[in-house]
Amino acid sequence: MVPLWMYLLVAAALFAIGTYGVLSRRNAVAILMSVELMLSAVNINLVAFWRYQSPLEMSGQAFAAFVFVVAAAEAAVGLAIIIAVYRSRRSVIVEDVNLLQG
Amino acid sequence: MLELNAQTIGFFIFSALMVGGGLGVVTSRNLIHGALYLILSLFGGAGLFVLLSAPFLAAVQILVYIGAIAILIIFAVMLTRSMTRMGEVFNTQWWLSALVAIAVFALLVVGVIMPVFGGLDMSTVSAEVGTTMELGIALVDGNQFVLPFEVASLLLTAAMIGAIVIARDRD
What we know:
The complex is a heterodimer. Chain A is 76% helix and 0% strand. By secondary structure, chain A is mostly helical. In chain A, helix 1 (4-24) runs antiparallel to helix 2 (28-53) and helix 2 (28-53) packs antiparallel against helix 3 (59-89). The mean pLDDT of chain A is 88. Chain B has 2 domains: 1-83, Four Helix Bundle (Hemerythrin (Met), subunit A) (Up-down Bundle); 130-171, no CATH class. Helices cover 72% and strands 0% of the residues of chain B. In chain B, helix 2 packs antiparallel against helix 3. Chain B is globular, with a radius of gyration of 20 Å. Classes of the chains: A mainly alpha, B mainly alpha. At the A-B interface, helix 1, helix 2 and helix 3 of A face helix 1, helix 2, helix 3, helix 4 and helix 5 of B.
């Protein structure tokens, strides 16, 4: 079986890619997709540690399942906000949403 | 040294899918392509879950992430017509973002991966694994996760109602 650090390396790379996407993309939908990438990387980490450290307790998998729930809720509300913003500003570019800018 | 068997090859294929898909999500100009890359990446994640002997999570990843979230994102892309008049993909601080991302990666490598580097391989990992049935029992067991389970269902209900209220047209 593949050693643990390889899984962690893949997850860390994906998390860093997601971080870059969140910070640098201008499109709000792309930012949301990058957040999904980061959550997915965290899930890989949770399950990998569960498998290698305590595979007989179910806490690792249970926490990963809760991350799924939070990701689904986040995607639903985030996309609803994006659609509401698009309706009022006619744009999904985050720099155009500057109503609160001083 | 790593022996080359089916599991190892599968790990490399799924990892390549996952990281390559992630790169595609972040860099693709067309958001529909980005969503398809996201599906590819999440599929790779599901494969990794199978290799980590978590088949239930792999199925949930396919059903919830690919079947629901990715499709929802594609719907949002179409509803907001965000493919048209896109202009630049990245904002003006993209090099700063790259620095931060590299710093995060370095931090993770030093803080999380170095301590376990080369430590655990298959000979020290137990072959016995908790099954999906045990996961199901743990999720509704009064001594384990029944309260977070109920809170999660409440969160989903609240998010669903909130999404409907936010996205609804005023008139």
